[in-house]
Design goal:
It comes from Actinomycetospora corticicola. Keywords: DNA-binding. The chain is mainly alpha-helical and 193 residues long. The protein contains nine helices and no strands. The termini are far apart.
């Protein structure tokens, strides 16, 4: 009779996979490495995550939940003014980009690895997260009542994209300078809108 899994096994597997996928990319991490580093058996891993796509989708959902909570806190702390909230959105991403282990956006990184929708479930999670993030900026810009909301939303989205992309090639000091510049530029854009 198989031994019942110990409590927390699923989270231990997901935590290990999340760390490895973020650090090395989804293609760069095999299931055997996750099994070894999580200290679990193959059958137990596959009982929780029948396919690698299931595990990757869970990793992206976990990251999505973390990002949503971080963004919610930033918006709450900014108050009710949409200008302050827009700056807070950019500042939240800038704060994330300043983490020592920052390697860019998990969702953008995944989509760069799998550009042809060959992993449908994880692709759907990544695309949904990016669409929701973009929609938040668009909703806040709409509240400003500016003449060209699409243009302002695009400019702010480019700042967010840039903050995430710099994780691929800039060292931490350079990322910090970029983050400060992005937040200041967001302030100017919303002030002049």
């Amino acid at each position: 009779m198989p031994r019942p899994p110990t409590p927390g096994t699923r989270e231990r597997i997901l935590g290990t996979a999340s760390r490895l996928f973020y650090a090395h990319g989804v293609r760069g991490v095999g299931m055997n490495r996750i099994i070894t580093e999580a200290g679990t058996g193959k059958n137990l891993l596959y009982a929780h995550f029948p396919t690698k796509d299931d595990l990757v989708a869970a990793y992206l959902e976990r990251t999505r939940t973390w990002r949503a909570e971080s963004a919610r806190r930033a918006l709450d702390e900014a108050g009710e003014d949409p200008r302050d909230q827009l700056v807070a959105v950019v500042a939240d991403v800038a704060r994330i980009a300043d983490r020592p282990d920052f390697r860019g956006c998990a969702f953008r990184n995944f989509l760069a690895e799998f550009p042809d929708d060959e992993a449908p479930a994880p692709t759907a999670v990544a695309r949904a997260q990016l669409a929701e993030s973009r929609a938040t900026i668009e909703r806040l810009v709409d509240r400003l009542g500016v003449a060209d909301p699409a243009d302002l939303a695009e400019q702010l989205w480019l700042l967010v994209d840039g903050l995430y992309v710099q994780g691929a090639y800039r060292d931490r000091d350079e990322r910090r300078r970029g983050a400060v510049a992005a937040v200041e530029l967001a302030r100017r854009l919303v002030a002049e809108a």
